[in-house]
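ok, trying the design again with the full structure, not the truncated one.
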């Protein structure tokens, strides 16, 4: 609407227009109104401005720019060059706006469509919808559903489509969805939409091509919307205080868990095992206290041993490195992960620090010396907070893991040769141009590179 106001100077005041005001307001002088109140624009001229607004919002920008170009030529013929320049700038701004919102689709016939994606968590769902008309993105909207979500994504999509289009002013001929509705619901939805539109409607889940790329954009918006909603929740002091009090009661803690530390292990097929520690203080992330751990003493995939190593390294330096003792230590995992953590705490004489684990599959909490899990209500504020801490630990571990993998993928076979560091590597590449050039060179040629000996040259040839 800000852009529309700049492009088409309609009036934003509510005064009765008589055309007899002595002078217009500031909006006229900054080119945000044509001044009908002071008789500076006739009824017909002002109606023309409003008509352009309507056409623009409907996405019919070609007609708008065509009319503006006609007026620009007319102004130029009448030697009104200042007015012609203003119309030229108006046309250029509309064209730039159109370029930015043009949507690529797989078929030229799919110019009118809606795109629906969602992001789900245990207690909430964010639905994002983009509206494309005449191949242009004319708008977007989102809907937030609070409370436990036990349905599958396809079922949520089906429910949303039925509720949204029951009152929507327009039903497009094509609706792209992130997840297929259940087979039993699909025919009913098709019939319902056909009746609402008085014409055929296709519900499709894009598999490839431009439609798939468009769906990914909408899905990313949904995920970002849900993440931002969580950030807003973390800024609500009343909700956080309620969550902390609930945790104190449910876990039988000696005090309100102000400082909570959560630990997670990340690996892919046993490579680059890493651990993460995130800290929440009074329900909010304390990023300056975050820590990352590269697991060094564990071979293969062993989450329990990795967790032991990480906790041992952290709590051995409890006083020297981190003087603040946590009110609650949270382990991402089930009973096995909790037992591994408990063993470390007992060994270090820190069994007085409260400990629990959160198993993702059923969102169960486990505490030492209690065989049964603690299941918080799905709409519990305490569970909501625990999930956010666990997800943050997981995100932090994954980001570290990706960094290590990307660094590993950039390594050259030359880096594997003991005795050849960055300086000698640069000298080799400068002399032979590439790794292939080094492979094709003889040992004698390699040995002539400054800083390299024949034994290093032999070792290098054997390695690469």
């Amino acid at each position: 609407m800000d852009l529309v106001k700049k492009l088409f100077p309609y009036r934003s005041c509510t005064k009765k227009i008589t055309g007899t005001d002595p002078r217009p307001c500031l909006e006229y002088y900054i080119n945000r109104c044509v001044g009908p109140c002071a008789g500076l624009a006739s009824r017909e001229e002002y109606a023309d401005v409003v008509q352009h607004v309507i056409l623009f919002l409907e996405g019919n920008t070609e007609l708008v720019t065509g009319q503006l170009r006609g007026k620009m030529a007319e102004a130029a013929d009448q030697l009104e060059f200042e007015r012609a320049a203003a119309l030229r700038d108006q046309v250029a701004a509309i064209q730039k706006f159109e370029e930015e919102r043009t949507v690529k689709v797989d078929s030229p016939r799919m110019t009118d469509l809606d795109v629906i994606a969602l992001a789900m968590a245990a207690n909430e769902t964010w639905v994002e919808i983009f509206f494309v008309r005449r191949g242009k993105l004319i708008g977007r909207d989102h809907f937030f559903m609070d409370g436990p979500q036990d349905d599958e994504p396809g079922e949520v999509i089906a429910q949303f489509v039925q509720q949204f289009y029951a009152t929507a002013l327009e039903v497009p001929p094509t609706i792209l969805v992130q997840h297929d509705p259940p087979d039993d619901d699909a025919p009913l939805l098709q019939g319902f939409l056909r009746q609402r539109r008085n014409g055929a409607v296709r519900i499709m889940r894009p598999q490839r091509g431009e439609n798939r790329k468009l769906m990914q954009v909408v899905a990313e918006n949904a995920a970002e919307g849900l993440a931002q909603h969580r950030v807003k929740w973390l800024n609500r002091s009343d909700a956080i205080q309620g969550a902390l009090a609930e945790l104190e009661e449910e876990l039988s803690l000696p005090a309100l868990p102000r400082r909570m530390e959560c630990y997670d292990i990340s690996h892919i097929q046993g490579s680059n095992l890493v651990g993460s520690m995130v800290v929440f203080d009074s329900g909010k992330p304390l990023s300056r206290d975050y820590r990352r751990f590269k697991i060094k003493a564990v071979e293969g995939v062993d989450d329990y041993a990795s967790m032991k190593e990480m906790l041992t390294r952290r709590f051995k330096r409890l006083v020297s490195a981190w003087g603040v003792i946590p009110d609650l230590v949270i382990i991402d995992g089930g009973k096995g992960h909790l037992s591994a953590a408990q063993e470390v705490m007992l060994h270090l004489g820190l069994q007085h620090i409260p400990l629990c684990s959160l198993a993702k599959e059923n969102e169960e909490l486990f505490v030492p010396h209690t065989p049964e899990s603690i299941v918080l209500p799905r709409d519990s504020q305490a569970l909501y907070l625990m999930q956010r801490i666990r997800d943050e630990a997981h995100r932090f571990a994954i980001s570290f893991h990706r960094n290590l993998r990307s660094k590993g993928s950039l390594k050259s076979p030359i880096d594997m040769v003991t005795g050849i560091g960055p300086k000698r590597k640069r000298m080799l590449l400068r002399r032979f141009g590439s790794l292939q050039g080094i492979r094709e060179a003889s040992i004698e040629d390699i040995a002539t590179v400054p800083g390299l000996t024949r034994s290093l040259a032999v070792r290098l040839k054997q390695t690469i």
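Keeping the full-length input from now on. Residues 2-101 form one domain.
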